[in-house]
Protein: Uroporphyrinogen decarboxylase
Organism: Arcobacter nitrofigilis
Amino acid sequence: MSKIFVDACFRKPTPYTPVWMMRQAGRYLPEYMKVRAQAGNFLNLCHNPKLAAEVTIQPLDIVGVDAAILFSDILVIPNEMGMHLEFIKGEGPIFKDPIKTEAEVDALLGGSEAADKLTYVYETIKLLKQQLPEDKALIGFTGAPWTLATYMIEGQGTKTYNICKKMMYSNPELLHKILKKVTEVVKLYMENQIKAGADVVQIFDSWAAAIEPAKYDEFSWKYMVEIADYLKEKYPHIPIIMFPKGVPAFLDKVYGNFDVFGVDWGTPMALAKEKLGDKYVLQGNMEPCRLYSKEATTMCVEALQNIMQGDGHIFNLGHGILPDVPVENAIHFVKECQRVSKK
């Protein structure tokens, strides 16, 4: 049975434009909060394949989206490379010993040594393949090397990225060493997700906007393209989605062997279509806060449909759904996307 989401990634005809939401398996769903409480904490949930599979499937049943995105966290990668990850309430993810020296980079596990430790992720995917309806796609994912490196160097989320950027300009060799090591792990991590059963993979560069446009290719995009090239050579039938958040100035310079470009909400969809619509299917890009209003949601969905005309498009938000969005508003978004694009 063909999966509408996979068909759309390859620009094949579909009965309507498929829709899913970033962070759709998450805190806005009371059912998710119940399972998370059962797990004890966020990391325990990531490490428990049975519970992670349960929350991955919830949005399909409750909200009606066309694809499931694996429930996990981007920071399981540096954690398994040997950095100690903690989630602290009110502060988010913390690495107690951020990377400062070449010796610390050398001490991290690399390649298959790290990728092979992420067995709980692959087990979750295998469980999902048994449980998901045949017509629903499963999206695997990873953080981009730059986004992962920012946490590894800063030790936590940051508004200024000053420690990373100090390294970028004063010791670029060290930053490239970190990025190369992470890239090698990510390649194998994504390959293992595909082997376990992921139908599609997405590479998130959440902190793309932290890099000035002149440096973006050197320190982020080229590593994402390297990962895509590695996967496409081995698995040409698996669609790859690239999502660099906050890079409208970079659209002219986008290149690479992938299928779908995720458009963030700060980039006008008409501009993305003009620059990239001939080369890539476009995903996005409703401002997530529109979900607080059903009227604002409908207006945006109709505007996106007018721009894209159901061709080379996947509906999504321009970033993740927020925890206090009413579930009925998320359901409304999905139904509106299907309504306006029905062929």
Residues 1 and 134 are 7 Å apart (CA to CA). The mean pLDDT is 97. The radius of gyration is 19 Å. The chain has one domain: 4-341.
